[in-house]
Write a structure and sequence with these properties.
128 residues, mainly alpha, 6 helices, elongated, transmembrane, membrane, transmembrane helix
């Protein structure tokens, strides 16, 4: 069930980042692009694993026991946690003052939800 929950969290966070943060990518800098890159590559890899698990019982037993899934989970966990930390810093440093000044500024709450949930995605990859 791990790939399904990773897919849902990844899609949710990536859609929040694209829908609300794209206009502020210049303000957020490389933290925004790193966040999208992490969400994209992990989403594509878990989609590929889910596809293999659904259509081949043999690949399910072989891939689950292989070094690939262990290394993938470790790298994904590190990438998720580092990108959510970096994005959290950028959001609180650059977008929070705009949120205080601008009425109905929706980007700060949306990006906060995105980096908090991508942190949950990192925790999700620690469960093997």
């Amino acid at each position: 069930m791990q790939p399904i929950s990773s897919q849902i969290l990844g899609l949710f966070c990536q859609s929040l980042a694209i829908n609300f943060g794209l206009g502020y990518a210049g303000v957020l800098g490389s933290s925004y692009h790193g966040f999208l890159t992490t969400a994209s590559w992990s989403l594509m890899t878990t989609l590929m694993l889910l596809f293999c698990y659904v259509f081949s019982e043999k690949s399910f037993s072989l891939v689950r026991q292989s070094l690939f899934e262990t290394v993938f989970n470790a790298v994904a966990c590190f990438s998720y946690i580092s990108s959510c930390s970096y994005l959290g810093f950028a959001v609180n440093t650059f977008l929070y003052p705009m949120y205080i000044i601008t009425p109905f500024f929706q980007v700060y709450p949306a990006m906060t939800a995105a980096y908090v949930n991508i942190g949950r995605g990192g925790w999700n990859h620690t469960r093997l």
